[in-house]
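Final paragraph of the annual report: two paired records, presented back to back.
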Amino acid sequence: MKKLDSGAGYVRYALGDLTVVALRDGYVDMSSSRLRQAGDRPFGSDMPAQVDLVHGRLRLSVNAFLVIDHGQHVLIDTGAADAWLPTMGLLLASLDEAEVARDSIETVALTHTHEDHVHGLVAPDGSDAFPNLRRLLVPQEEVSMFDGYDRLARFRQRRLPFGDGFKLSDGITAVQAHGHEVGHTAFEVSSGSETLLIWGDVVHVPSIQFDRPELTWEFDANQDEARSTRQRLLRRAAQPSFFVAGAHLDFPGVGTVTASGRAFRYTPLA
């Protein structure tokens, strides 16, 4: 996987003969109590020193990823637009900076239906962010959750449920990654000898959850399942010519994973 070019809000890569564009939507600062030990216990004064804090809070990047597979533009997640915090909502500006036309995106696939992944379907001016959207793929277990957002009511007739193993294109396959949410899904992108796993919210706190993958997140719907999924996908990723892309890894959120016993190490792609 090779970096081609970049700007403040995007980094473009070649993956085999496909193109992947990491897109910045912004960031969110969360209480350090969101990080959980066994038994759903938050850290207090025992917070490990290796955890990166900004003014005492956890700063999570919010990233989305565009895959261009032989002309087909597939956007994985959409950011939050103006629906949550003012530190987010940069996705459309990042697309403009990358010189990607919004009307070229005909497929949007969601890793799950949390606010910072779905609300970017609607632009801040209230229009459809992707005017030529033809396929809106929602994990089948989360269709009712998606339909619960009044902001997204206009998309209810267009959303299509999908499950594990669904082929979005010749090079993109859905991979079950339940735990953070009931239908949480990753997407495996393959071309030639290279593979990229776009894994949504498998890791929230990269400064410690690679080294200690047993640590969970307060908002994991099922913490035991989220822990098991993280360990399974980290083992899957720790192989040659394999890359990962995370919604909450520090922007641009793309790198490699290596294993060391039960721990793992994440190395951002230079």
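The closing record of the year follows.
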Amino acid sequence: MLDLLPQIQEWFQAGQDVAVATVINVLGSAPRPVGARMIVSADGRMAGSVSGGCVETTVYEEMMDVLEGGPPRKLHFGITDDMIWDVGLACGGTIDLFVEKLDPEMVAALVAHVEQGVPVALATVVAGESGLGSSALVGRDGVVLGKAHPRATALVQEMLAARTGGGTLLEVEPDAQIYIEPFLPPPVLLIVGGVHTAIHLTRFAKELGFTVIVTDPRAKFANRERFPEADQVLLEWPDETFQHLNVNESTYVVLLTHDPKIDEPTLAAALKTNAAYIGAIGSRGTHAARFDRMAQWGVTREQLERVYAPIGLDLGGRTPEETALSIIGEVVAVKNGRTGASLRATHGPISPEPRACAACSSAPEE
């Protein structure tokens, strides 16, 4: 919903009520994933998508009914003789949607937390006889706004601690379900060294939704002219950067300077954090010599095993663009818990499976 928040706020400011339809469950093949949303304003404007067009007309009518005072509701679309003619869902799967009227107070609280970079989750009752459509905003320390089932609160805190994204259906009792969706701060790519490869790496990372920070003590490398798309460009020694930045498990650190007096103190500082990824450019020989010298910084061989060096996937690239592609490919693979190997050489699902809810007493409704 993050991409739709500006539109939602604009409609609220114009005095419009807003309904939202959310994909809460997918079985088989479907054109839009769990978490996809469509919004409709009281004056009939629409944004977003829940199926790529094949059920939108019917969903739109249901959403308008909710805006006219009807109750929130769960909708199910699948391939039956009637449905083929009714909504034309011919993509080989079934989808469950939940349609509700948005609460401006809840949206405002969500926006405030997102803007501050504070991870939270929405927990919405999507099935059951009691509280259908009621939502709660839950953070790491508990409920922020609304009322949440204790099991939902516990699962949210588990997901936020693990920075687990993606929507989850939690069955709290027979025929009662809560849809939980975390809203996590975007991952941060910290690029050490404003070299040519870093320019392309910044562009790739921004396209992929990263917050990008470039740091370099050399003014000719660390400037806005070279990095207009970066979120921050810091003219300082990178090891100093680690003293004031919050480097955490959603931070990915890439060292590109090829300069020992920058790389080594930076690497020592990075290894003291719980960064999700630390990669360093250079040949195998360069890394062997660098690692031998790292003992003077109090870094052990065991700690150095965290470093991805040589950096990047084996694409055989030679240009700065190809090198940047190799690096961002490895970063994305690590972020998603994958190897980066060719899909032809792997087995199992191509996309991550929907999260299995360990807290559920039985499987979510399909």
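The chain has three domains: 2-101, 106-183, 188-335. This concludes the annual technical report; the extension proposal builds directly on these records.
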